[in-house]
Amino acid sequence: MHRRAVGILLISLSLAAVILSGCGQDEGDKVVARVGRVNITEKELRQKLAELPPFTRQQFQGPEGTIDFLKRLVDEEVLYQAAVKAGYEDDPEVKRTLEAIKRRSMIQAYYKGEIESAVEVPEEDVQAYYDEHDEQFQREARIKFRHIMAPTRSQAEEGRRRVLAGEDFASVARDMSTDGGSREAGGLMKSVNVGSALPSAGMDEDFIRRVYEDWRVGQVTEPLRSGNGWHVVVLEERLEAGKKPLDEVRDNIVQSLMPAKTREYYDSVLVELKEQHGAKVNEDAFRTKPRTEEELFTLAQDTDDPLERLNYYSELVFNYPDGAHAAEAQFMIGFIHAEELQNEAAARNAFRRVMDEYPDSDLVESAQWMIENMGSEEPPFEESDVLSTD
């Protein structure tokens, strides 16, 4: 790269560091890098950073990370301009890829704008789901409270007197509570299930349960002993165990039901669109049409290869077990095994099937003779005697 060009790029990157660290002007259209006649502005840089997945974006935190990302944008722009100059805009593969991206983006936009946005979960469905899933919406008893912690009972009683005299509970907690974890928040503790404990404040399960059972919201308790000292507590929220109200869980129910509703609506839209656009699928183009019984029987008679004949007869019996030639085909399976392949076990099985499955056939007597005399002498008939000439 020319030395002057290198100098310009370094100056641009240095300027970016100043702007992005907050030391420059605030306008988002300030140029932070340039490649040829293409400017990269701070606004564009911020937008591209925001488009990154959260995990990836973490790699570009702070001024140095932002500058590193800017350098990558410069590299990308350099490569893009080089590709344009080399004529890759007209490359067939590039065009196919761009067309595929365009199609995918348009389909996604259509799905979001015409299907997802049109789906609503009816209130009656929400209510029905709520009524049918009691166990899913149960909650334990909970309390939320403020407290003033003191090392002695007398100090706790002093805090209680100040509150009962009209001072704000949170102000008194900030002034005198010894619980560093809640003092700055005016003694406010996180919501806790009854039956749980708050070890950081020295409150065991019995302490929490006593506050829940013995005091109402707004009441200031007497000094209560814990593992860390003495406490004055005021309940801000008291929730009994039971089913959460519908308003509290409605959004969660809607999110649970939305996928099925969206799929149902999508299927109905797809049917309508297929009708509108005359969509047809030629399934037969991908399915082998079964050969007719006559075709299989003729193929078997016309071949001299015993294995091929065996396959044709087997296909005929499988596809047309009640066909006009089924008994003959089954007999010929046994005959080929016995006379040509010398497989007596397979032959006996085939002949027994003739006798069991086609008891009314004229070939039953011949099948019985083959079973009884197989291998002892030539059969008193030939293949042509068995096959029908219809």
Q: Would you mind describing this structure in some detail?
A:
It is a single chain. It is built from 16 helices and 8 strands. The protein folds into 3 domains: about 5-90; about 140-240, Chitinase A, domain 3 (Roll); about 295-385, Alpha Horseshoe (Serine Threonine Protein Phosphatase 5, Tetratricopeptide repeat). The relative contact order is 0.06. With about 400 residues, it is an alpha+beta fold. The termini are far apart. Helix 1 (about 5-20) crosses helix 4 (about 60-85), helix 13 (about 325-340) packs antiparallel against helix 14 (about 345-355) and helix 14 runs antiparallel to helix 15.
Molecular shape: elongated
| Helix proportion range | 55-70%
Care to count the β-strands?
8
According to CATH, the fold-level topology of the largest domain is Chitinase A, domain 3
**Into which percentage range does the β-strand content fall?**
5-15%
Name the strands of the widest sheet in spatial order. Answer: 5-4-7-6
Q: Give the name of the CATH architecture of the largest domain.
A: Roll
How would you sum up this structure in a few lines?
The protein has 390 residues and is α+β, with helices and mostly antiparallel strands. 55% of the residues lie in helices and 10% in strands. It folds into three domains: 88 residues; 100 residues, Roll (Chitinase A, domain 3), CATH 3.10.50.40; 94 residues, Tetratricopeptide repeat domain (Serine Threonine Protein Phosphatase 5, Tetratricopeptide repeat, Alpha Horseshoe), CATH 1.25.40.
List keywords for this structure.
single chain, 390 residues, alpha+beta, Chitinase A, domain 3, Serine Threonine Protein Phosphatase 5, Tetratricopeptide repeat, 3 domains, four-stranded antiparallel beta sheet, two-stranded antiparallel sheet, 16 helices, 55% helix, 10% strand, elongated, disordered N terminus
